[in-house]
Specification:
The protein is mainly alpha-helical and 132 residues long. It folds into two domains: 3-59; 71-130. 56% of the residues lie in helices and 8% in strands. It has helices at residues 8-47, 55-59, 71-78, 87-96, 106-116; strands spanning 84-85, 120-124, 127-130. It has a three-stranded antiparallel sheet. A hairpin with a 2-residue loop joins strand 2 (120-124) and strand 3 (127-130). Helix 3 packs across helix 4 (87-96).
Length: 132
């Protein structure tokens, strides 16, 4: 069977079927990952060690965000020179500027980036000034 012999409606129906199948598999993967995490936790409790996060659970969160600039570059462009800012405020600014991240600890990532970047000076706990 060649593509020339298949109608557009048949192609669309096949694509829809495959998408439904993919969603079903994704749901199944998430369910299995949760079950595996429960087994890992139970094993850890029985053996007296700390429970470990299962990598498969993290994989179900979705694709990694791809930005055109790094987080420090986004921070430097979002914060004006001389401006004093907290990591929470900085995180809101870079997100408003279009920086995407699916990280659960995005605020901590911003705090670390502010502390390491020479363009920012730490004034006190949780307060950073953008140097000119």
């Amino acid at each position: 069977m060649t593509l020339k012999t298949i109608s557009t409606a048949e192609l669309q129906a096949e694509l829809a079927r495959r998408q439904r199948s993919a969603h079903g598999l994704s749901d199944r993967r998430a369910r299995i990952a949760r079950e595996l995490q429960a087994v890992e936790t139970e094993l850890a409790l029985l053996s007296g060690r700390k429970p470990v996060a299962v990598a498969a659970a993290a994989a179900s969160r979705g694709p990694r965000a791809r930005n055109t600039v790094t987080l420090p570059e986004a921070l430097a462009s979002a914060v004006k020179p001389g401006q004093v800012i907290s990591p929470l405020e900085a995180a809101a600014l870079v997100r408003a500027a279009g920086f995407e991240s699916g990280a659960r600890t995005f605020g901590m990532m911003v705090a670390t980036a502010l502390a390491k970047d020479k363009r920012f000076r730490r004034l006190s706990r949780g307060r950073y000034e953008r140097m000119s």
